[in-house]
Write a structure and sequence with these properties.
This is G-protein coupled receptors family 2 profile 2 domain-containing protein. By secondary structure, the protein is mainly α. Helices cover 78% and strands 0% of the residues. The chain is built from four helices and no strands. The relative contact order is 0.09.
């Protein structure tokens, strides 16, 4: 369990906190830039669109990452109880020659739903990351690259 804490939980928590801090600092900077641009009379439509896109992406990334972290904390907190319950179950079965340890019987078992939520949220983090990457410009760039590989040229962007 120390390995789970040291090599999984701690880095995930530290990186999530650091990333959120940088995200908040970036938003403050973007808001400051936006107010300066508005005072100068410059249009801020593209900047506001970018800020909305960053905000939506960050929510779609941070919330599932927090859920994964919470599920891992749940897994770490109850792992010993689950192992004791499994050991009791195995020693009660006479098919195995496992001696039963003295003490109260543990009946706590892992919740299947928590593990499925953990895996779903881990996949959702990747899916939301792909929404940021696969925009219309990215698809156009890949189309241009594939056409150049096949020897065809498309019209140049000017």
């Amino acid at each position: 369990m120390a390995a789970l804490r040291g090599f999984v939980l701690l880095p995930l928590a530290v990186f999530l906190v650091m990333g959120t801090a940088f995200l908040v600092a970036g938003f403050f900077s973007l808001f400051r830039i936006r107010t300066v641009m508005k005072h100068d009379g410059t249009k801020t439509d593209k900047l506001e669109k970018l800020m909305i896109r960053i905000g939506v992406f960050s929510v779609l990334y941070v919330v599932p990452a927090l859920v994964v972290l919470a599920c891992l904390f749940y897994e770490q907190a109850y792992f010993d109880h689950w192992m004791n319950a499994w050991s009791r179950e195995m020693c009660a079965n006479r098919l195995y020659a496992i001696p039963c340890a003295p003490g109260p019987a543990e009946t706590r078992k892992p919740e299947f739903e928590v593990f499925m939520i953990k895996y779903l949220m881990a996949l959702i983090v990747g899916i939301t990351s792909s929404f940021w990457i696969w925009s219309g410009k990215t698809i156009g760039s890949w189309r241009e690259f594939c056409l150049r590989l096949r020897g065809r040229r498309s019209e140049a962007y000017v």
